[in-house]
Each structure stands twice: as C-alpha cells, then as structure tokens.
C-alpha cells in the first residue's frame, strides 16, 4: 500500500513536470553494440511472425514502447517491404527518469532519430483511437507485481481492458504480435485472450540467432479476420 502511494506521487510529479535533461546520446560502446543486436533481434522476430506487408500507407503501433530502444528494428522490418508507413509508439510512463536524469521520452528521441514518420506518443493506450494495421506489444504487464515494481500506480493495472482496447484499434485483416516474458506470463496472457474470445496462434518460445534475452520469451499472433 505504501509502495502504491509512493508510485502515485512519483508518477503524478513526473507527468506534471515532464522534467528531463535534453539531447541524450549513448556513448557507452558496449550498450551501443548490444542495442544493434537487440534491433536485429526485433527485426528478425517480426520477420519470423508477421505476414510481409504489401500495402503502402499502413499504420503500425508499438504498445508500451518505454524508451523505444528497438524502434530501428521495427522500422527496418517494414521499410524492407514498403515505402510509406506511419510507426507510432505509445507509452504511459514517458517521463520516468533514468539515474542520469534523462526521461524515457528524451532517450526515445535518440533511438528514433532519422526514422521517417516515427512518432512517440506519451499517453495511455486507452486514449488511442487511431486504427492500426500492425500492432507490436513487447512484454505487456499481465501481472501486478512487475507493474508495481516498474513504478506504476495500481490504478493503471487493467490488462484485460488494455487487451480489449488494443484489439478494437486493430484494423480488419490487421495483425497483432504479443510477446510475454516467461511461462507464467504466457499462461496469463492466454487466459486473457480466451476470456475476451480473441482468436490467436500460440507461437511458443520465440528465438533469434542475433540475440538471446536472459528470460525466455513466448508469443501470440492475432489476425483480425
Ligand atoms: C515491461 S515494459 C516493456 C517495455 C518495452 N516494450 C520493452 O520491450 O522493453 C511495459 C511497458 O508498458 C507501459 N505501459 C503500461 N501500461 C500502459 C498503458 N496503459 N498505455 C501505454 N503504455 C503502458 C509501461 O509503462 C512499460 O514501459
């Protein structure tokens, strides 16, 4: 309860002030190299699981994009197939500060620099009404413990409502890829999808030769037909 009070106060203050140092640049060589591999991983996971995009002028949404360190991988996957698309990322906690006093939003500006038609939206997914042809959802909070641990107030924990909303903004014939961390979260995700009667393909463990995360990742592909 005390933790939630603290999260509420911190969350309120950081969103009210939007404070951040400006013009973030990553200088740590190891982190730059790791980021390259994570982007290759991202692109590979999308290529393995999504249908190849063929239509121009489509819209793509990343849900919970944090500092969007993997935006380039997403962008490269789509730009290999089509010329024009809009890539949006929505993040509820955009003004969370790192210990170096840069916000996620400011760091995202660095990671999305030069990526055409890429737009970071500091907002709650529930406020998004645009419809998307592809939705990418890496590591949604389906359990309250990680949600709280990451500093979010409990009043924002409503995984079922978020999933329902994400599905409602998926275009007809659109595809949504959800990736969960660990077997337990995969099981909870499956229960949520079943409860909402959303049809899916359970992809099992997702792997890429480019990068291996410490914890196993599992996927679901939803095609809205
Ligand atoms: C486990 S993190 C995953 C971050 C990132 N996708 C990744 O793969 O590293 C979940 C993210 O979802 C965000 N989030 C939670 N609820 C949200 C909501 N209602 N709208 C938008 N983002 C939300 C959190 O703030 C957090 O950044």
Nutshell version of this structure?
The chain has seven helices and seven strands. It is of the alpha/beta class and 225 residues long.
What can you tell me about this protein's structure?
This protein is an alpha/beta fold and 225 residues long. It has a single domain, classed as Rossmann fold. The protein contains seven helices and seven strands; from the N terminus they run H-H-E-H-E-H-E-E-H-H-E-H-E-E. Strands 3-2-1-4-5-7-6 form a seven-stranded mixed sheet. The protein is globular. The structure holds S-adenosylmethionine. The site of S-adenosylmethionine has 15 residues, from strand 2.
Describe the protein's topology.
Blueprint: H1 2-17, H2 29-49, E1 58-63, H3 71-79, E2 85-91, H4 104-111, E3 118-122, E4 132-138, H5 144-149, H6 159-168, E5 170-181, H7 182-195, E6 201-205, E7 217-223
Parallel strand pairs: 1-2, 1-4, 2-3, 4-5
Antiparallel strand pairs: 5-7, 6-7
Helix pairs in contact: 2-3
This protein binds S-adenosylmethionine (SAM).
S-adenosylmethionine (SAM) binds at residues 64-66, 90-93, 124-125, 138-139, 141, 152, 156, 162.
Descriptive terms for the model:
single chain, 225 residues, alpha/beta, 7 strands, 37% helix, globular, binds S-adenosylmethionine
Helix and strand composition category: alpha/beta
Per CATH, the superfamily is: Vaccinia Virus protein VP39
- Main sheet: which strands, in order across? 3-2-1-4-5-7-6
Total number of beta strands: 7
Name the CATH class.
Answer: Alpha Beta
Largest sheet: 7 strands, mixed
Question: C-alpha Rg, in Å?
Answer: 17 Å
- Tell me the CATH topology: Rossmann fold
User: What is the total number of structural domains?
Assistant: 1
- Mean pLDDT, to the nearest integer, reads 98
Order of helices and strands, N to C?
HHEHEHEEHHEHEE
| Cα end-to-end separation | 43 Å
**Low-pLDDT segments:** none
């Amino acid at each position: 309860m005390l933790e939630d009070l603290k999260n509420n106060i911190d969350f309120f203050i950081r969103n009210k002030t939007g404070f951040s140092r400006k013009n973030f640049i990553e200088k740590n060589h190891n982190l730059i190299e790791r980021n390259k591999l994570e982007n290759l991983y991202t692109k590979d996971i999308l290529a393995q699981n999504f249908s190849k995009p063929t239509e121009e002028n489509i819209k793509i949404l990343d849900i919970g994009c944090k500092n969007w360190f993997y935006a380039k991988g997403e962008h490269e996957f789509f730009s290999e197939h089509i010329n024009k698309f809009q890539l949006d990322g929505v993040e509820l906690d955009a003004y969370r500060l790192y210990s170096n006093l840069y916000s996620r939003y400011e760091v995202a500006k660095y990671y999305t620099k030069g990526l055409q038609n890429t737009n970071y939206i500091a907002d709650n997914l529930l406020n998004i009404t645009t419809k998307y042809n592809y939705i990418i959802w890496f590591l949604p909070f389906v359990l309250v413990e990680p949600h709280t641990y990451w500093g979010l107030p409990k009043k924002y924990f409503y995984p079922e409502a978020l999933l329902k909303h994400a599905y409602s903004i998926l275009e007809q014939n659109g595809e949504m890829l959800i990736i969960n961390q660990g077997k337990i979260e995969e099981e909870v995700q499956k229960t949520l999808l079943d409860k909402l009667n959303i049809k899916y393909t359970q992809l099992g463990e997702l792997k890429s030769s480019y990068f291996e995360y410490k914890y196993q990742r599992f996927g679901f592909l939803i095609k809205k037909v």
